[in-house]
Structures are given as structure tokens and as C-alpha cells.
Specification:
Blueprint (H helix, E strand, L loop, with lengths): L2 E7 L4 E6 L4 E13 L6 E3 L4 E4 L6 E3 L11 E5 L3 E3 L4 E13 L14 E2 L2 E2 H8 L2 E5 L11
Parallel strand pairs: 9-12
Antiparallel strand pairs: 1-2, 3-9, 4-8, 5-6, 5-7, 7-9, 10-11
């Protein structure tokens, strides 16, 4: 999905910055699940956020390597930016298969691709624990052939 940021619009002229960056590139598959905002405040989760699943409730949650409830294991990436009110429960869609832009993956806190979770890095978990997410490098139209 491309995004647009209106920098200036005074009725006579407009300056709009457009990004053609995509997170979900090719042959993507999705699943739906329940997410409960239990943070005690409103929450905005960006597209590309790594998502796990709480084992006891089967609810989806932001994947955090320090968790011990099952959500430390990634099951996919949030498909679109989602806003939650305090205590709100919503159905969310996550990508669990296909080519995904590596640079667009969002982690919680200090987690990175190299963060270990039970002797495997989060990068290995994302590609191995999901149904088949392939992390592919991308650039944003920076070369004539967009390599």
C-alpha cells in the first residue's frame, strides 16, 4: 500500500509526499484473530508489527521476546495499522505467508531480528514458525531497475 503525507495544502497549492513502499509484496496469505488491548490506554499498532498468540486464550498479542505466555513466538505480521481504544477487543488480520519487505517489519521495544527466543533468532522464528513468510530486501525506487 502506498501512503501520502500532505505537507502543505493552502487551497492554491499542495505539497504531497508519496511513499510507494510496500510491506506485503507477493503471494501473501492472511489469517484473522482476536486482539484485546489490555495496556490500560489507547493503542495504535503499525502495519508490519510482529504478532504472537497467547497460548491460554488463543488471543493475538504483540510479539515480545521477554514474554512467557506463548506470544514470544511470532505467528505473522499485522496486515494494516490498527487503532484500539482502552480495553477494546477487535478482530485483526495478520500475514502468515508470502514475501514481506524485511525493512518494513516492526518489533516491540528493543527486539530486533537478532533477538534470541529459545535459542533461535526472531528472524529465524519469523521465517520458520509462520506458515511461510519470506523476508526479502527491498529499496524504494532508488535505481532504474529497482533492485
Amino acid at each position: 500500500m502506498s501512503t501520502q503525507n500532505v505537507v502543505l495544502n493552502n487551497g492554491q497549492q499542495a505539497i504531497i509526499q508519496t511513499s510507494t513502499a510496500k510491506i506485503f509484496i507477493w503471494a501473501n496469505r492472511t489469517i484473522n484473530g482476536t486482539f484485546v488491548n489490555s495496556t490500560g490506554s489507547p493503542l495504535v499498532i503499525p502495519a508490519g508489527q510482529v504478532i504472537g498468540r497467547i497460548a491460554s486464550s488463543q488471543n493475538m498479542a504483540i510479539c515480545k521476546s521477554a514474554a512467557s505466555d506463548g506470544s514470544q513466538y511470532p505467528i505473522g505480521l499485522l496486515f494494516e495499522t490498527t487503532t484500539f481504544a482502552t480495553g477494546e477487543t477487535k478482530q485483526i488480520t495478520i500475514c502468515n505467508k508470502g514475501d514481506v519487505a524485511r525493512e518494513q517489519v516492526v518489533f516491540d521495544g528493543t527486539d530486533t531480528f537478532a533477538t534470541p527466543v529459545l535459542l533461535r533468532s526472531l528472524e529465524d522464528r519469523i521465517t520458520g514458525d509462520t506458515e511461510g513468510i519470506h523476508l526479502v530486501p527491498t529499496t524504494e525506487l532508488s535505481n532504474y531497475d529497482n533492485q
